[in-house]
Design a protein that fits this description.
With 280 residues, the chain is an alpha+beta fold. It is built from 10 helices and 9 strands. The longest helix is centred in the N-terminal third of the chain and has 30 residues. The structure holds zinc ion.
Length: 280
């Protein structure tokens, strides 16, 4: 109470000073309030795009191309339909030669797939083996559980070929076959010389995509393979490019999600492989 009495006496003695001071405090508090409101609106609330984790475009493409196998992307990993995850980018920096030897998923997008051959670029030949094993099977026995036999170009060729049903590769190859079969002029190029075979790429320890039953070789007598044409060359050497495969055949495969080995610097013109994630 004594202090309250002192205050009252002070107000009585200095009324103008007290009123001015109170006014200044009020204005000051008002300003403070305005400035806090401004902060809340413009600074404290983050833009919407910052609050949603961004999915790398190649991971998004994988989800779109393999919807029954790859269902999402979380914490730098792609998420499979069984709930398991695989790291997308392991952070290791690899040279162009090193990504042929083995790479993470992110490295598979290093080279864009187009129709021009660029030195030492093999778009699609850089495969994350763990991803393919996860999708199609860890062994020959596992891959074999998902094979379907289809009639390959029944009118022009009439062979049976085995291809995986995972990711509907069989359905897509069936469509390729039906379309090619309408073109008698393609006949010399269509004979199949191999789809499923668990094996390594010649001269390497890397599994061939044929191991996963997602690839087909055709027209071997009309084909060119970089190693046949450059027998002494290693992958690091400059080589001569040759191809006699028909562009129209390549286009039909492409339409249904298959890339062509003739688009690689280390060319393999008989080889077609289901890799829709690399196509536009
Ligand atoms: Zn092949």
């Amino acid at each position: 109470m004594p202090s309250l009495l002192k205050c009252s006496k002070y107000v009585m003695k200095h009324p103008f000073f007290v009123v001015s001071t109170l006014l200044m405090i009020t204005v000051s508090c008002g300003n403070s309030h305005v400035s806090e409101t401004t902060y809340d609106t413009n600074v404290d609330t983050p833009p919407i795009h910052d609050s949603v984790p961004e999915i790398p475009s190649f991971a998004q493409k994988l989800i779109e191309c393999y919807p029954e196998t790859i269902v999402g992307y979380e914490n730098d990993s792609i998420v499979f339909a069984d709930g398991s995850r695989m790291i997308f980018d392991d952070g290791i920096v690899r040279s162009d030669m090193q990504i042929l030897e083995g790479c993470d998923i992110e490295d598979m997008a290093r080279w864009s797939y187009n129709d021009s051959i660029r030195p030492f670029c093999d778009p699609g030949r850089n495969r994350c083996e763990a991803l393919f094993k996860k999708m199609y099977g860890q062994s020959a026995a596992e891959v074999s559980k998902h094979l379907r036999t289809i009639d390959w170009c029944p009118t022009l060729v009439g062979q049976k070929v085995q291809i995986t049903t995972i990711n509907h590769v069989d359905v897509q190859l069936q469509k390729v076959s039906e379309e090619l079969d309408k073109h008698p002029e393609f006949k010399p190029y269509l004979k199949n010389s191999g789809t499923f075979l668990w094996r390594v790429v010649a001269g390497t320890e890397r599994l061939s995509p044929h191991s996963f039953a997602i690839a087909i070789d055709i027209g071997v007598n009309k084909s060119n393979y970089w190693k046949w044409d450059n027998p002494k060359a290693s992958e690091a050497d400059t080589i001569i490019y040759r191809n006699t495969m028909l562009k129209e055949i390549v286009e039909i495969f492409r339409k249904y999600g298959f890339i062509w080995g003739g688009n690689w610097y280390h060319y393999d013109s008989m080889h077609f492989e289901y890799r829709p994630e690399l196509l536009d």
